[in-house]
Amino acid sequence: MKQILLITDGCSNVGESPVLAAAHALQEGITVNVVGVVDYGTIGDIGSREIADIAKAGGGLSRIVGTPQLAQTIQMMTRKTVVQTIQQAVNKEVKKILGEGSLEQLPPLQRSQVVSVVDELTETSALRIALLIDASASMKPKLAAVEEAIRDLALSLEAREGRSEISVFHFPGRTSSEDAVLDLDWTNDLSGIRSLFSRMRMRGATPTGPAIFKVLEHYRYDTLDGYRSGLAEEHNEREGMIGGYVV
């Protein structure tokens, strides 16, 4: 399973629409979750609407939170999206077998067995999360909370049975032609997270759409072929597990 987690505090103002970019991500099997971060006041109607629209287009969740709730919110959204993705796969398999039927129409014993499979897959499925951090100037006071939240997320992913990896991007880049910067490539090693925040330079523009497209490009063209083949094997195994309970 693949996710983009966008952490921002306001509106995009450069380049392509982030809603369009999120829709492209969903078409490629990548869920986009969005967290709007405030330290005081509000993001505003335009920013709030954009955050909700990005998440909706990307098939994900959106929340607007203060910095004290950031870590808990990120973990909750990540897990909830994993469960949602697995449930969608389960419902798809059930419909293949039962036609227009649903999970609720299964006999109680079979239904409880399928629910157990969903719980198991939530903990064991391979997961990749690309964190996309708004590093525009207004985010500077919130960066410490973002760093802490990412460390907490990485620790929670380490506790999963399944393979979990994080990559970290920030935007805008170092020059006007650089939409986003890859700070940390796919890893489950926490040691590099703290140092990468000290290297970030906060800037004014907010090219959210181009930054999402940059992350999509990384998902498409990264060289970790073993992960991709592992996902294919896992998908086949998951279908077999689900089908075994509903036939």
Q: Structural class of the secondary elements? A: alpha/beta
Helix fraction?
40-55%
**What gyration radius follows from the Cα positions, in whole Å?**
19 Å
Counting DSSP H or I runs of 4 or more residues, the number of helices is: 8
- What topology, given as strand order, has the largest sheet? 3-2-1-4-5-6
Do you know the CATH topology? Rossmann fold
Q: Averaged pLDDT, please?
A: 80
Structure overview:
The chain contains 8 helices and 6 strands; from the N terminus they run βαβαβααβαββααα. The chain is globular and about 55 Å long. It starts with a strand and ends with a helix. A 6-stranded mixed sheet has the order 3-2-1-4-5-6, sandwiched between helices. It is of the alpha/beta class and 247 residues long. The longest helix is centred in the middle third of the chain and has 29 residues, at 70-98. The protein has a single domain, classed as von Willebrand factor, type A domain (Rossmann fold), CATH 3.40.50. Strand 4, helix 5 (143-158) and strand 5 (164-171) form a beta-alpha-beta unit. Helix 1 packs parallel to helix 2 (45-57), helix 3 crosses helix 4 (108-124) and helix 3 (70-98) crosses helix 5.
Features:
VWFA domain-containing protein, 6 strands, alpha/beta, single chain, 18% strand, vWFA_dom_sf
